[in-house]
Structures are given as C-alpha cells and as structure tokens.
Amino acid sequence: MSHPTSPARTSQRLDEAVTGGIGDSPLRPDSALKVTGEYAYSSDLWAEDMLWGSTLRSPHPYARISSLDISEALKQPGVHAVLTHQDVPGENVYGLKVSDTPVLAEDIVRYQGEPVALVAADHPETARRALAKIVVEYEVLEPVTDPERAAHDDTLPKLHPEGNIVRYQPVVKGDPEAEAEVVVSDVYTMGMQDQAFLGPESGLAIPDEDGGVDLFLATQWLHVDQRQTAHALGLPLEKVRFTMSGVGGAFGGREDLSMQIHCCMLALHTGRPVKMVYNRLESFYGHVHRHPAKMYYEHGATKDGKLVYVKARMYFDGGAYASKTPVVVSNATSLGTGPYVVPNVRIEGWGLYTNNPPCGAMRGLGAVQPAFAYELQMDKLAAALEMDPVRLRQLNAVEEGDSLHTGQVLDSPAPVAELLARLERMPLPPGCTDLPRDVRTLPGGLSNTSHGEGVIRGVGYSVIIKNVSYAEGVDDYSTARVRLEVIGGAPVALVHTAAAEVGQGLITVHQQIARTELGVERVTIHPADTNIGDAGSSSASRQTYITGGAVREACTAVREAVFERVARRFGEDPAGLSLTGGKVVCASGAVLDLVEVLGEEPVEETREYHHLQTYKMDPVTGQSRRVHVQHAYAAHRAVVEVDTELGLVKVVQLDCAQDVGKAVNPDAVVGQIQGGSTQGLGLAVMEEIKVKDGKIRNPSFTDYLIPTILDTPPMRIEVLERADPHSPYGVRGVGEPPTISATPAVVNAIRNATGLNLTHTPVSPEQLCGS
C-alpha cells in the first residue's frame, strides 16, 4: 500500500524503553539549581516600580478595637497606602472550611498576631516605620485558652456566634459499655507543632489593565486561594490569576491564606506591583500550626491480648478560626483506634475555638495526635499483660477484608503485621555499653556533658494507619492537560496542571508518568497556575494519586489520538499499536517515527481524574460505608539513649517499614520517609510552640527547636509495594505516614529506657528528671 505522505517505516522492533519512567529514580529537574542556590523562590521575585507591603498585627489574644488612627502613617514619606477593614473591596471574611476569618479585623481581635492594617511603601523599612505610627486602642478581654473548658463550659465567652465548638463527632461500634479482663487508661497531651518551613510566606501582586490582578506566590492550593481572594476583592475569578512560584517547604502551613488578599489589595489600591515577604517572627504569627490535643484513652483486652474495646475522648485546640479543624476531628475519630481490629468502640472528638494561635493543616492532619495516644496505650497494655508489644500489635492487626470501627471495609492490602515483622528482622545498633565510645555519640556529647554516666538505652515500636486524600463525600479530583508536539526535531510532551510542587517531587512524578505513557524522553512541566482546572491541595498525601491519575488519563487520551491518526493514515489496527522510544510500534512489525506522525499538528487533551466516592460520617454513630478513599500504613522502631541525670535524649536509630503501593520514584520515596521520620522525631523530643495566656513565647528558630543533621539518626528503610487496585499504578500516599509513626516509637523507646509513664509530647528534660 502506497502512502505518499507517510513517514519512514521499518520492520525493526524497538526493545529499549524510555528511561526515567514509573519505577525509575530520575533526578529532579530543579535539583541543581536548588543545591547551587540559583533556584528562584517566591521571596526572590521582583518587578519594576515595586512597592513593599507590610502588616500591622494585634498584640493581644482577645480584645475589642476601640479606635484606629492611620493619619500619621499616611504622612510618612514613601508611604503609598494604609488600608483597614473599611478598604476591603468585597466581603471581609474568608476560610477554608468555614468562612469565619476576617481579612482585616473590624471590632474584635481573636488571637495575638491577627492582621489589623496594611501598609504599602517604597522600601520595607519605610513600611515598618509607618506601621509603628498607626495608633490602635484596644479594650483587652480575658482570653479563652482551655479547649476542654471551651467544649463544656457555657459561661465562657462565645468567640463566634455559633459558639465555641467547631465540630463534635462521636463514633460508636458494638457495645460502648463493654467490659474486659485487662484495662489500661491514661490522659495524653500533645503540644503545638510548627511546620517550620524555611521559605517564609511571600508573594508579588501585579495589577492589570483590565482591573484584575496577577499574584505570583508560594502556596499549596492555587484555586482555593483564588476563590477566597476573589471573594474578598469583589472580583470575578477570571480577574484574579494565580501562578506558583518557588516554594521553600509547606507541610500544610500554606493551605490557609496568609498574604494573598493583603498583597492583592495593596496592588489594586496603588496601581503598582506590591511584594510581601514575612520575616520569621511574623511567619510564626501568620500561619496555622498543628492542633494541640488532650486525649483520654481506655483500652480493654482479654487476658490473651485480644482487644475488646477502646474508649476515647479527644479535644483539639483549633485556635481563633476554624481552618481545617473539622477535618482534624473527622480524621482523628475515624482513625482513633489505630490499625487494629476492635469490636467495641466509643470515641468522641471535639474541635474547639479558643484565643490561642489558629491551627490547621500539618503533615499527618488529625492522625498524629490519636496515634501518639493509642500507640503508647498499646505498650502500656502489653506491660499489663506481660506480653511482647510487637506480638500484641500483630495479634490485633487489621488485614484486608476487616472492618474499621466506622464500618468501612478495607478493600486493599493492609500489611500491618508484616511491617512489624520486617522491623524486628532489622539489626539493632551496637549496645550503649560497648566500648570504646566516642563521647560525641552520647546524649549531649557534643557539649561534653557526659562520658556515659547515667546513660541508658531503650527500644520502642509503633505502627499506624493514615487516610489518603479528601474524605467524607468530598468530590476529590484533579485536572491535567497534556500536549504532544515536535520541538527541535524531537517529540516533546508538555504537562500542565495546577498542582503545587512544594518539595515533594511532584514535577518529577509527572515527567515519569508522561514518559511511561507516551514513550518519549523529553517532558516539560508547565508552570502551575489557575489557567487550568483545579488540582486540589498538595496535602493529604494525595497528589501522586489524584493529579498523577489526571496526568495518566490525559496521556492516555493523547496516546489514543495518536493511534487514531496512525490508523487513519496507514490503516494500522489501533489495538496493536504502542509508543516507545519516540516511535509508534505496530503489531505488523512496522515502526513509525513519532516526529513524522505528529508533523506540525500537535495532539492535546485535557482530563479530570476522580477517585472512588466517599461518604460522610453519621453525626450520631460515626458510621460510614467509606469515610476514606484509601489508607496507608507505616511502622517504626526507635532506639534511644537517655541521660537520666541531665534529661537529654539521643535517637540512635530510627528504622521504618512502610507500604507505598507502588514506588513511582524509589529514591524520592525513601527521601520522603526520611524527612517525615525526622519531623516526627522533632515532635517527640523538641518541637513545641509554647503558648501562655494565648501568647506565643518562642516565635523564633532560636527558641523553637527543630532537628538538625546532628539530631537525625541512621535510618534503615524497607519499602513494601502492595498495590491498591483502585489507584493509578497501585500507589499509596507516602509523605505523611512516617511522620505519624515516628513520634510514638521514639516516646515508647524513652519510656522503655526510663520506666517513666510519659504522656506528653514532646518529652522535655524536666519530664525525664522529675523537675
């Protein structure tokens, strides 16, 4: 058959697949720029005639604004605008789940650091001086600071019209009054943790001639930021355009708005580009934190170790505004028994308003707090039973086909017992008494505080369950556009989504998917922006699953369009075609050059990907056929050394076994587990925002401690790949589970070493020394 316009055809088959696809570990395309310091973060942005924006914040946790005078600030040379709530063009309110947060405070401030006024000036120092000239008179009120009291004490002030309860959720299964032969109980508390990302909140707003505004920023969710900002600006969505800039870490702290509306307001008011960059102090006040929690837990078991019941009451301090508190309560109550089969359950969860700093999303949202409690309970139960704590966990571990306490049946692998077994097989480090010892390896050794006197070792385990993606009936989806064209004589795929790359490696994953599905080497990632459909948030360990699914769907559509073109032009059966190495391989043995198939006619397709439907929890029983679309599992073993005289802790080894379904990028998976484990270690032994009477006492990296490389121990990591049949490539979320399981493993190890009944995290020297 003659085809005068056909490309060259051969009968040679191609055996070499494109490298850098699913299961490979290609380098991040931004890696060299980041390690050499050339990468541009949002705080590096610049524009001609740019002004600097700054924010005046409340010094009080709870107060009434008596008066506000901006006249002297307006007189400051170099000041171009001073704005208050009266200057908000649209509605002076926004919120992720509940619209309850003022853009700028009107008559009441509900937390220390609440924004009250804005300044735009020609220099950041000028803006700072102008802020100092704004005169605000406050009537200071008694703050509400105890979340448990906020749940039950009707005499406390109502911080919001509907009261102080953001959400109350019970879960009841079986007989909530069941009794057991062996019972253990305790009260567990968790401090407020900060996301501690190194790149501060920042953005650059540029007004447009059409009356709209373009904002270049670091965020986790472009479209939800766009919707809230447009509402506050009183503009249609198409006139509020957001583009992702370089993000220096996130961990949930960028899901809520910070400077987005403020920066756009100043730009629209002045008619000039405005840049805002928080310093570290302002960052502590300007973003949400992890919810502190108080949790009452009781476990009952048979004398043989089978769990009979779990009872729990959990209080989550949401601070002044709702943010993700409703989701925290949902996750905590639906996961509150851990990865165990429990026939009888009664759990109650409250999310509360207080005048403490606002709390919202942070890695492991809502699962971190109960996991700390139930895993310390499992060790306490094992001690009461005189049973090995690993055996106790394996005896009660869920498996595929089991039901959780919400009634949801686990319809994919749940290798909980296997994860624990793999940890046990890993070799332990040499004993702490083995000599000679380098004093630098001892707790506090770098300060030469010990030569081994009073140093004891402990080992602790934990295993957890974590939901992946959005839940309770949310239609969770993402959008992707893929274009296949010829550039520079080679086929190139262009992938465009609004998904936020916040350091988790998503851009690499998108390239891997496109290479795998389209068989091309060159893949370009379009900057994420709001010119394409929503991709949801880079949170809940969902992006590889959901946006990865959208990219795969779009690639599949592009591939099918290419095959249809080949079928029309060359009469080949589309069912017998494949793409590999930049070629179209036919079942007949012919090989077509993709460059010539495409020619000057690119193929472009846009697709949405939606996961399986989920359902709300019953407001009375908490039951639901499917609360969560997917669950992930991780286990840790921690080895610690404790200086009992000084109260110092050194984590000697922190090993992890985790099921990831499919390791799309094995090196990146290990990196995520290492990073998550380190963040969980920080929560176990050092990270806590100290809040007293509603005020933050340590808003700096001098006083808020995070693990450094000297605190990070060796980690053995085993990755299981038990595919989820419902997800693209069988993937499970990776980033959050290790953070959740690391904390209780470390604290259990400290308890094992000292014999102390430690119930608060982070563990402080005072707790260990009894002072």
UniProtKB/TrEMBL annotation:
Its EC number is 1.17.1.4. Keywords: Oxidoreductase. This is Xanthine dehydrogenase subunit D. The lineage of its organism: Bacteria, Bacillati, Actinomycetota, Actinomycetes, Kitasatosporales.
